[in-house]
Amino acid sequence: MRYDMPGPEPAQPIGVFDSGVGGLTVLRALTARLPGEDFLYLGDTARLPYGAKSPASVSRYAVQCARVLADQGVKLLVVACNTASSVALPALRENFPGLPVLGVVEPGARAACERTDTGRIAVIATESTVRGGAYHTAIRRIRPNAQIHSLPCPLFVALAEEGWTDGPLVEGIVQEYLRPLFARFGEQGPDTLVLGCTHFPVLCAPIARVAGSGVAVIDSAATAAAQVAEYLDQAGLRRGKQANAEERVRFMATDGAGRFARVAGVFLGQDLTPEQITIVDL
Q: Where is the active site (predicted)?
């Protein structure tokens, strides 16, 4: 069902949704880059992870999440989930024709193409994102001759959500994933590594150490925030910094306010309480 909306206005909030808490890395980058904007964040914690779901299910869930945010009058929808960004953008744009929709795959792919010198680009993501080939498609659209290899890293999600973001155990798991992935490129290896899941930036330190100084690590959260800022400026929708006002964020989840608040500290860099999380029913 199409959801017709009036044109967006600068004073409206920005809507951000993810399958759970990983998208909080995108929210963190957005609030840092866009002081004064209001944000609504929705984590679909009742149905996570999206990474192992079918494309049809992910698209259906994404439309349901978007409807919650659209009902609250957002001016822009940020799909802070690589899996949903890889399969659900067409469904979102069809169902919400008046609502601008931005994902995290395209800005990550663009940043990788701008950074690489050799065209050898590695991608780590969820199973669904890798299976769908969204990064391959987006990168080759910009750089047709790029050599791309990708690998699903499901344990990274579990590590991030448990708050295990560094140390010998984490570094050992990172090595187990990256060693065979990098070997696919031959002796020279890749020169660019895309973190194709919004959980992965909290593991950036051990990932960067294992990858080595010759590999540029692309954070899809940071690149998405840069694209949002660029879009708002071009569309005349940036609210700008407000005098005597901090950025304001409202948090929603579909289940588990207590766990959401506990895990959010790892991704958002600030403590939340369960009372700050509104549970919504999709």
A: 81 (proton donor/acceptor), 197 (proton donor/acceptor)
Which helix (H) or strand (E) element contains residue 239? none
166 is in an annotated binding site: no
- What is the spatial distance between Cα 203 and Cα 113, in angstroms, rounded to a whole number? 22
**Does 149 belong to an annotated binding site?**
no
Domain covering 14-103+223-279: architecture = 3-Layer(aba) Sandwich (3.40)
What does each of the 282 residues of the chain score in pLDDT, given as a tens digit? 555 556 789 999 999 999 989 999 999 999 999 988 999 999 999 998 888 788 999 999 999 999 999 999 999 999 999 999 999 999 999 999 989 999 999 999 999 999 999 999 999 998 888 988 999 999 999 999 999 999 999 999 889 988 899 999 999 999 999 999 999 999 999 999 999 999 999 999 999 999 999 999 999 899 999 999 999 999 999 986 664 555 589 999 999 999 999 998 889 988 899 999 999 998
Catalytic member of 65, 113, 153, 197: 197
Q: Of all helices (H) and strands (E), which one includes residue 221?
A: helix 220-235
pTM listed for this prediction: 0.91
197 belongs to the catalytic site = yes
Whether residue 81 lies in the annotated active site: yes
Pairing of strands 147-152, 192-196: unpaired
Catalytic residue among 65, 81, 113, 153: 81
